[in-house]
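Let's sit down with a protein and look at its sequence and fold side by side. Which protein we use is up to you, so please pick one and set it down. Label the sequence line and the structure token line clearly, so we can match residues to local backbone shapes. Go ahead whenever you are ready, and we will take it from there:

***
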Amino acid sequence: MLSLSAGFYHSLCICGPRVQGRDATRRTLASDLRQLLAQPRRSDVTFVVEGRRIDAHRCLLLARCEPLANMLDGSMREATAGEVEIPDVSYEVFK
């Protein structure tokens, strides 16, 4: 065990090897999630905006974007569609 922290509402134990140097600051949740972007084989929904494809992940959209969450997780037809066309929005703005 490398580190232990405990409080009234939490406990945390870090058990893995300690990473030092450049690699210690390079890996973050944000950088790991960024690796998933624009990878069609890992995405589960594709938006078509101005004829261009944008691959995405429903779980991230559900967590971060209420309008798209309502569209993708409700009773709308987009909830089961693999490809969703988005009209009246520019590609740059949507992306």
